[in-house]
Design a protein that fits this description.
Blueprint (H helix, E strand, L loop, with lengths): L10 H17 L2 H7 L5 E2 L4 E4 L11 E4 L8 E4 L5 E3 H8 L3 H15 L1 H39 L5 H21 L2 H24 L1
Helix pairs in contact: 1-4, 3-4, 5-6, 5-7, 6-7
Length: 205
């Protein structure tokens, strides 16, 4: 257990260690772990495997490996020694310390490419965040332009202003289609500033 390596009152280190465990457990695959330790296993059915348990003096397969769980994490259990857990827990049982277990887990993830996959996930989340921000900003800009055009109805400047807004939204549609979120956000901010300047000068006249 991780608590064995830290004092119980050392809360920051315990929290950090448990966070590390959660992060590693989400990315590790138990079959990759077994291959790292060069442990043979036999495939059964439905994502289930059997193997001789390396945690006790086992002579026939008594450890079950599950790779298709509702939890989304691989797991294992031995019906003889009653030990069980996920992929990282298996590494902890094979290694002497938590620190060594982390090193092994990170080595496995690096070898299998799961670390880079994690990076791709972060990139995808950042892209989603930017897209959400871009959609919200352009929607707000649309409301501001609508209110501005309503205020200009009946004035000579209305047709010219309407055409300008039309051209701006043609550019916005291009950014949306090409999913150029950062450019769109910058463009919308610029147009919001310009609109504020125009409205301010119009009100003074």
């Amino acid at each position: 257990m991780v608590e064995e390596e830290f004092e119980y009152n050392d809360v920051p280190k315990l929290v950090e260690a448990r966070g590390k465990i959660r992060s590693l457990s989400k990315r590790l695959r138990i079959l990759d772990v077994l291959e790292y330790y060069e442990l043979p296993y036999e495939e059964k059915s439905g994502g289930r495997y059997m193997m001789v348990c390396p945690l006790h003096n086992d002579h026939s397969p008594s450890m079950n490996i599950f790779t298709e769980n509702d939890s989304g994490k691989d797991s294992w259990c031995c019906f003889v020694c009653n030990d069980n857990g996920d992929a990282f827990r298996f590494i902890q049982r094979m290694e002497s310390t938590f620190t060594e277990a982390v090193k092994v887990a990170e080595s496995i993830l690096k070898k299998t490419g799961a670390v880079s996959n994690s990076g791709k996930q972060r990139e995808a989340l950042e892209k989603q965040r930017l897209a959400k921000k871009a959609f919200l900003l352009q929607h707000r800009l649309g409301i501001e332009y609508r209110d501005w055009l309503i205020s200009l109805r009946g004035k000579p400047i209305y047709e010219k202003a309407y055409q300008k807004v039309y051209e701006i939204y043609k550019q916005i549609e291009e950014y949306l289609e090409e999913e150029q979120w950062e450019k769109l956000i910058k463009y919308v901010h610029n147009k919001q500033e310009k609109l504020q300047e125009v409205r301010s000068s119009t009100n003074k006249k």
